[in-house]
Amino acid sequence: MVLLRKKLKKIEPIGLLSSGASGTFSFGLNTQNAVKRSSQFLDILLDYYFDILENRSLILNCLPQAVKASTAGVTVAEIGSRTDSLIYLLTTLSHEFDQTIIIGDNHFIKNSIEEGQNKGINFKELRVHLVLGGIYLPENLRTYLANILCTDFNDSKTGSIFSSMGLSGLGLNVFFESKETLTLRRLMNEDPVTKEKLLHDSPFPIQISILEWD
């Protein structure tokens, strides 16, 4: 135990807490160096998905407060599950940036976006991207949110909606959609022939998620 304490003191660990979506929380530790590397990798991913090197970007992190979005290349507001804070920042701050990236779970984001619409936010004037996680994302929910946000999936300049799942207690993003898997899943949902070709021997009649993992 003494040796463990000495090692922990030497590496200056950072505590990680899971989202608790399952009703049970898990804890993990990470080092300052590992967090720095993760931040650099996250910037690479953000540029791949959202072109942050060319667009001034604002991240509104609506995940539980213990789950942070560590990035050096983007302005981040850690607001947690506060609908009023999200709506306030969309109204007052998003216009100062080329695009806004909202991270959160499906249910919270859906309810917040609906409330923002009811309060008069003109999402067509904003370029909003969503990164949704914590639970399965039905394709009809993605389409519903896209209609509110005025997102055209054939034009990334109007925004985008991606699904991602991870183990925040370990600091890992495990499964995630790419631009290609998103296009394929929507094509399956819209074209029965394509779906039949890909899932002809599947016993499941439901729409599946197509996620990459690393």
CATH class: Alpha Beta
Q: Ends: how far apart? A: 33 Å
CATH topology: Rossmann fold
Strand content: 15-25%
Most strands sheet: 7 strands, mixed
Report on this model:
This protein is of the alpha/beta class. It has one domain (2-175): ANL, N-terminal domain (Rossmann fold, 3-Layer(aba) Sandwich), CATH 3.40.50.12780. Helix content is 39%, strand content 21%. The chain is built from seven helices and nine strands; from the N terminus they run H-E-E-H-E-E-H-E-H-E-H-E-E-H-H-E. It has helices spanning 2-11, 32-50, 83-92, 106-118, 139-149, 179-190, 192-199; strands spanning 14-17, 27-30, 57-61, 75-78, 99-105, 128-133, 160-167, 172-176, 212-213. The strands form two sheets. Strands 4-3-5-6-7-8-9 form a seven-stranded mixed sheet. Strands 1-2 form a two-stranded antiparallel sheet. Strand 7 (160-167) and strand 8 (172-176) form a beta hairpin. Helix 4 (106-118) packs parallel to helix 5 and helix 6 crosses helix 7 (192-199). The radius of gyration is 19 Å and the shape is globular.
